[in-house]
C-alpha cells in the first residue's frame, strides 16, 4: 500500500511539474521600451502619452499620470536609465494615480477589442497574472481585462509597501479565478481584447512604486509542490476515514 501511494504521489507531482514546464508565459509588459510622462506645477494636472512599445503586449503602451493633490513634480517612467522597470515617483505630499493601457493602439482612448482576442491562458496552461512590484507605501493596484465593451473583469491587490534599497520585488500573483465581473459575464481569459493596470495613490501621498514585469503565467513550482502535498494529505486522510 505504501509503495502504491508513493507511486501515485510521484505521478501526481510529475503531472503538476510537467504542466508547469510546458506552460508558455505571455508577457504583458517587461518595461524594456522607454516612455515617460511628467506632471509639474499647478494643482491637479494630468498627462498622457501613448506610443509603440515592442516590450508590451500588442506592441503599444499608453501611460497616464494624474495628480489629485500637491504642487511638485511627479513622473511615470518606463525603462528609465535602461533598467527595464516602470517607476512611479511622487513629490513629497503629492497624491497621484497612474494607469497603463494595452489595446494595441497609441492613443488613450480604450479600445476593448484592440488586442484581437489574445489567449492569456496559452491554451489552458496559464492560470494567473504575476506582477513583480515594490513600493515604499501600501497602495491599491488594479488590473482590468476586457473581452469586449460589455464583458470585462477586475482584480485588486495591494502594493507591498516594504521600501526599496535591497528589498526584492514582491511577486503579486492574481489568479484568473479571482477576477470579479464588472460587466456582463466578465472577461474570457481565452479571448482578451484589452488590459488596463492602475496604481491608485489618491489617498497615499508621496507614493513611490516600481513594477518589474506583468506576465500571464502559472504558479511557482514551490506552490505546485505545496498543492500536491495538500492533495496527498487529503487522499491519505480519506483512506483512514474509509478504513475506520
Describe this structure in words.
With 244 residues, the protein is α+β, with helices and mostly antiparallel strands. It has one domain: Jelly Rolls (Sandwich). 18% of the residues lie in helices and 40% in strands. It has two helices and 14 strands, in the order αββββββββββββββα. It has helices at 2-22, 221-243, and strands spanning 26-29, 35-40, 46-52, 60-69, 73-78, 86-89, 95-102, 128-135, 140-148, 151-158, 170-175, 180-183, 194-200, 208-217. Strands 1, 2, 5, 6, 8, 11 and 14 form a seven-stranded antiparallel beta sheet that branches. A seven-stranded antiparallel beta sheet has the order 3-4-7-13-9-10-12, with no helix packed on it. α1 (2-22) packs antiparallel against α2 (221-243). It is globular. The two termini are 16 Å apart. The relative contact order is 0.20.
Amino acid at each position: 500500500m505504501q509503495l502504491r501511494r508513493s507511486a501515485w504521489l510521484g505521478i501526481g507531482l510529475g503531472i503538476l511539474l510537467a504542466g508547469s514546464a510546458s506552460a508558455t508565459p505571455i508577457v504583458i509588459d517587461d518595461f524594456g521600451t522607454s516612455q515617460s510622462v511628467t506632471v509639474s506645477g499647478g494643482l491637479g494636472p494630468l498627462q498622457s502619452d501613448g506610443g509603440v512599445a515592442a516590450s508590451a503586449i500588442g506592441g503599444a503602451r499608453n501611460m497616464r499620470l494624474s495628480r489629485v493633490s500637491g504642487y511638485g513634480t511627479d513622473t511615470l517612467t518606463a525603462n528609465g536609465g535602461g533598467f527595464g522597470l516602470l517607476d512611479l515617483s511622487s513629490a513629497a505630499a503629492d497624491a497621484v494615480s497612474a494607469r497603463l493601457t494595452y489595446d494595441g493602439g497609441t492613443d488613450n482612448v480604450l479600445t476593448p477589442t484592440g488586442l484581437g482576442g489574445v489567449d492569456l491562458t496559452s491554451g489552458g496552461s496559464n492560470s494567473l497574472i504575476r506582477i513583480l512590484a515594490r513600493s515604499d507605501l501600501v497602495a491599491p493596484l488594479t488590473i482590468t481585462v476586457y473581452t469586449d465593451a460589455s464583458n470585462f473583469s477586475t482584480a485588486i491587490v495591494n502594493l507591498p509597501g516594504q521600501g526599496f534599497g535591497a528589498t526584492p520585488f514582491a511577486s503579486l500573483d492574481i489568479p484568473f479565478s479571482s477576477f470579479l465581473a464588472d460587466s456582463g459575464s466578465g472577461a474570457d481569459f481565452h479571448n482578451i481584447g484589452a488590459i488596463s493596470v492602475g496604481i491608485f495613490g489618491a489617498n497615499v501621498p508621496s507614493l513611490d512604486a516600481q513594477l518589474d514585469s506583468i506576465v500571464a503565467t502559472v504558479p511557482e513550482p514551490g506552490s505546485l509542490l505545496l498543492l500536491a502535498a495538500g492533495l496527498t494529505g487529503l487522499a491519505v486522510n480519506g483512506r483512514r476515514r474509509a478504513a475506520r
